[in-house]
């Protein structure tokens, strides 16, 4: 599987938690490891869990029962969420190889080293959790390359794991449709059996109002469309296929793809998930009319919020903040000028002022500063409700 296939599998697993073991196996192969897991180790041991990918079940149980306090785990407690670390660079690896933990857990599974990607919501619960991948002695020679590949997947893994957890929690709650749509930080749209929009969350409402690549079509009934005809056809076909699957048919399905934006900003990543009993059984509990979930990720949105945080810290102007956000999203100065509709000299002026206020000396340094800036996530407002079966409020 290539990078795009892996990302597709990750988001499919987000909606169908039973797919995580197979998805982890694909990630293991893509990164170049012998096995891996998604793990959470609670401070008191209660509530700990481990989702394995090509790992021995008997040794997983032994690990959770006896070895959660191993040197790797203690070292990983200090790693910031989103960072990828190589375990043997943090511990006395030679000493570990003479321990009972190594003899009982690592050696039988050909584990010589570990990569770890902490997950924020698991760390916040007071324990340690994230994605761990295990390298053999031979694979350890390419540990840095493996870590780089895992780093490329890290933002998608974070979103998918959070979405998985939210859907799991919501499965046991009333008013399922409202709670699900409200729990997703990115734009999310619920589609009914006719292909019409049933419900949107606040992020989706704002995205559709911008109408930059994806917009609300009212030709027959409120539905999603894209400005580029090829993308619009792809979106329509994906929703149609998902509806067929939701109705119990076996049909080919393309659930993840990108949609370009006329503004020139990074394209949206769109995930379409059928809400059929065989795919997401939790939807059996409520007859909400929802048959498809459309999840739209704006890669530039987080960078924009981080740049706004810099605006508050360093006193950037609105214009300087817009330029800083686009630098943080990876654009060069001519691209920024085109997106904002201003001259290259104006972009250079704003960039120079950003350097002066933040103390940075290059675009790369400014981008790193933006990427490292924490943001306080605001709780989403109440979702937009429909006034009937399938007509959402005005967007």
Automatic annotation (TrEMBL):
Residues 313-370 form the HTH luxR-type domain. GO terms for molecular function: DNA binding. Keywords: DNA-binding, Transcription, Transcription regulation. Signal peptide: none annotated. SUPFAM superfamilies: C-terminal effector domain of the bipartite response regulators (SSF46894). The keyword DNA-binding applies. One of its GO terms (biological process) is regulation of DNA-templated transcription. The keyword Secreted does not apply. InterPro entries: PAS (IPR000014), Sig_transdc_resp-reg_C-effctor (IPR016032), Tscrpt_reg_LuxR_C (IPR000792), WH-like_DNA-bd_sf (IPR036388). This is Helix-turn-helix transcriptional regulator. It comes from Rhizobium vallis.
């Amino acid at each position: 599987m290539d990078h795009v296939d892996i990302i597709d599998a990750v988001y499919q697993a987000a909606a169908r938690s039973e797919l995580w073991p197979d998805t982890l196996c694909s990630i293991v192969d893509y990164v170049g490891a012998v096995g891996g897991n998604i793990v959470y180790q609670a401070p008191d041991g209660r509530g700990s869990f481990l989702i394995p990918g090509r790992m021995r079940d008997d040794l997983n149980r032994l690990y959770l029962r006896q070895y959660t306090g191993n040197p790797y785990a203690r070292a990983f407690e200090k790693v910031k969420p989103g960072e990828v670390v190589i375990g043997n660079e943090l511990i006395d690896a030679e000493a570990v190889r003479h321990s009972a933990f190594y003899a009982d857990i690592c050696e039988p599974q050909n584990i010589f080293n570990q990569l770890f990607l902490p997950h924020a919501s698991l760390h916040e619960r007071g324990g340690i959790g994230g994605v761990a991948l295990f390298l053999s002695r031979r694979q350890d020679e390419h540990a840095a390359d493996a870590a780089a590949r895992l780093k490329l997947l890290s933002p998608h893994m974070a979103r998918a794991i959070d979405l998985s957890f939210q859907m799991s929690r919501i499965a046991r709650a009333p008013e399922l449709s409202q709670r699900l749509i409200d729990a997703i930080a990115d734009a999310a749209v619920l589609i009914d059996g006719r292909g019409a929009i049933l419900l949107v969350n606040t992020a989706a409402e704002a995205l559709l109002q911008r109408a930059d690549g994806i917009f609300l079509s009212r030709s027959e009934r409120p539905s999603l469309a894209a400005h580029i005809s090829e993308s619009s056809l792809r979106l329509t076909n994906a929703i149609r296929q998902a509806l067929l699957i939701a109705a119990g048919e076996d049909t080919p399905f393309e659930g993840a793809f990108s949609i370009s934006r006329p503004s020139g900003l990074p394209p949206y990543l769109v995930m379409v998930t059928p809400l059929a009993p065989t795919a997401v059984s939790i939807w059996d509990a409520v007859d909400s009319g929802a048959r498809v979930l459309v999840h739209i990720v704006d890669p530039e949105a987080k960078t924009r919020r981080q740049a706004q945080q810099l605006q508050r810290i360093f006193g950037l102007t609105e214009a300087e903040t817009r330029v800083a956000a686009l630098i943080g999203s990876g654009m060069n100065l001519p691209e920024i000028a085109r997106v904002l509709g201003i001259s290259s000299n104006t972009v250079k002026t704003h960039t120079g002022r950003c350097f002066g206020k933040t103390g940075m000396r290059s675009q790369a340094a400014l981008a790193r500063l933006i990427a490292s800036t924490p943001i306080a996530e605001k709780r989403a407002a109440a979702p937009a409700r429909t006034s009937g079966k399938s007509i959402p409020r005005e967007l």
